[in-house]
């Protein structure tokens, strides 16, 4: 396996979380309320799984190694866009956190904006994953030699030992189950 294999496995879990968000938003539209705890779980997932674990490997391993190579202008441009996407994603998550705390404190009028930021994040994130999977990950693998692939994959494994990221698998599973029965 190459590093992008691991990154794509992570993309699939993030996509499942995005589906959970879609379902939560559908319920919110129908019930006129949103469960602040679902948002907190989502924020935890985005900050630790999507950002720390997943973007950590993209920025700290793949992009960092690519930056040492003589990559094409097109790939350089996409990589820059992907990094700005990560910044934008973080800012949307921060916005979600502050709206959620206002909503939790009783400001029911924040629901519309909360739903809008939440759905923006879901749409944006799916597109980001598509961009990486379809236009960047596979073509950029050609810049590396066999031993560099092995080294990156090994570094990925070491990175995963730094935290317990497995809890996010369970989180997605239980949110999927909870939303199906609501
Ligand atoms: Fe990314
Ligand atoms: Fe990614």
List descriptors:
182 residues, mainly alpha, Four Helix Bundle (Hemerythrin (Met), subunit A), binds fe (ii) ion
Please describe what this structure looks like.
By secondary structure, the protein is mainly alpha-helical. It has a single domain, classed as Up-down Bundle (Four Helix Bundle (Hemerythrin (Met), subunit A)), CATH 1.20.120.520. The protein has helices at residues 3-31, 36-67, 73-104, 111-140, 146-160, 167-180. The N and C termini lie far apart (39 Å). The mean pLDDT is 94. It binds fe (ii) ion (2 copies). One fe (ii) ion binds at residues 55, 58, 82, 86, 128, 132. Residues 7, 11, 54, 58, 129, 132 line the site of one fe (ii) ion (FE2).
What's the quick description here?
By secondary structure, this protein is mainly alpha-helical. It has helices spanning 3-31, 36-67, 73-104, 111-140, 146-160, 167-180. Helix 1 (3-31) packs parallel to helix 6, helix 2 (36-67) packs antiparallel against helix 5 and helix 3 (73-104) runs antiparallel to helix 4.
Which radius of gyration do the C-alpha atoms yield?
A: 18 Å
Please tell me the overall pLDDT: 94
Order of helices and strands: HHHHHH
Tell how many strands the DSSP assignment holds.
0
Task: Estimate the strand proportion.
Answer: under 5%
CATH architecture: Up-down Bundle
Count of DSSP H/I helices: 6
First-residue to last-residue Cα separation: 39 Å
What hetero molecules are bound to the protein chains?
A: fe (ii) ion
Please indicate the count of domains: 1
The major pleated sheet works out as:
none
Q: Name the overall outline.
A: elongated
Fraction of helical residues = over 70%
Q: Ranges with pLDDT <50 over ≥5 residues?
A: none
CATH topology: Four Helix Bundle (Hemerythrin (Met), subunit A)
The CATH class turns out to be Mainly Alpha
């Amino acid at each position: 396996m190459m590093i992008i294999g691991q990154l794509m496995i992570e993309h699939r879990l993030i996509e499942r979380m995005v589906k959970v968000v879609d379902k939560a938003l559908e319920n919110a539209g129908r019930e006129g309320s949103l469960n602040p705890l679902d948002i907190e779980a989502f924020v935890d997932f985005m900050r630790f799984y999507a950002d720390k674990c997943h973007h950590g490997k993209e920025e700290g391993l793949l992009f960092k190694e690519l930056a040492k190579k003589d990559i094409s202008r097109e790939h350089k441009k996409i990589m820059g866009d992907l990094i700005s996407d990560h910044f934008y994603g973080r800012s949307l998550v921060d916005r979600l956190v502050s709206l959620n705390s206002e909503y939790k404190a009783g400001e029911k009028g924040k629901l519309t904006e909360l739903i809008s930021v939440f759905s923006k994040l879901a749409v944006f994130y799916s597109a980001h994953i598509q961009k990486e999977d379809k236009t960047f990950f596979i073509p950029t693998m050609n810049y590396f030699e066999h031993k560099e692939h092995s080294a990156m994959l090994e570094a990925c494994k070491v990175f995963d030992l730094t935290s317990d990221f497995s809890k996010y698998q369970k989180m997605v599973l239980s949110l999927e189950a909870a939303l199906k029965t609501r």
